Amino acid sequence: NAGVTQTPKFQVLKTGQSMTLQCAQDMNHNSMYWYRQDPGMGLRLIYYSASEGTTDKGEVPNGYNVSRLNKREFSLRLESAAPSQTSVYFCASSDPIAGANVLTFGAGSRLTVL
Amino acid sequence: SQQGEEDPQALSIQEGENATMNCSYKTSINNLQWYRQNSGRGLVHLILIRSNEREKHSGRLRVTLDTSKKSSSLLITASRAADTASYFCAGITGGGNKLTFGTGTQLKVEL
Questions:
Q1: Distance between CA A100 and CA B4 in Å, rounded?
Q2: Cβ within 8 Å, pair A35-B1
Q3: Which helix (H) or strand (E) holds B67?
Q4: Taking 70 as the threshold, does the pLDDT of residue A1 lie above it?
Q5: Low-confidence residues of chain B, pLDDT below 50?
Q6: Alpha carbon of A102: minimum distance to chain B alpha carbons (Å)
Q7: Residue B53: CA atoms inside 13 Å, Cβ hemisphere, count?
Q8: Using CB atoms, which residue from A48, A99, A104 is nearest to B98?
């Protein structure tokens, strides 16, 4: 049981390049999330998808797009990468348990934009 | 920002001692959770305390929640070197189901 799988684990981009971070979960969870983690900032929500076919902005959505491809997969795209997007990105999924969202996280994707 | 604030930012203790970390929000929070993150890894859920609970235990973990003060604390008793990690609180703020995380406490347990 893999849980939440993210690819790639590491990526270096030049300013202006585009890339897509992939995320897949095998727990049949309805909700999926993308967070970024920066030193001293904790985790900040970029986008989330409450269920297949829906997406919504989080706290820091600018510069990102997402696609909920199916129930398993939720991708995050950077159309024109900027140095400010250098960060560690985490995908997570959840199924609300009696009103509480307990998240299962992937291992993270470390992105550097030069 | 509705992000939670954690205190202290960093904590260094000796093995066997207790570690206490605190979390506070500016807005009301529901169903507060605590997560642990080992260096270079993803976050792992530790414990959930619901809005109608004041205290909860799980093994060496004890969590309290004070909804009137919008704050929570995590106590790890008899700490071990393997407890070295960052700890984050997370709660649902402002309605909806989006989880907002605190800034984290880095705990170092020395032998």
A1: 17
A2: no
A3: none
A4: no
A5: none
A6: 7
A7: 16
A8: A48
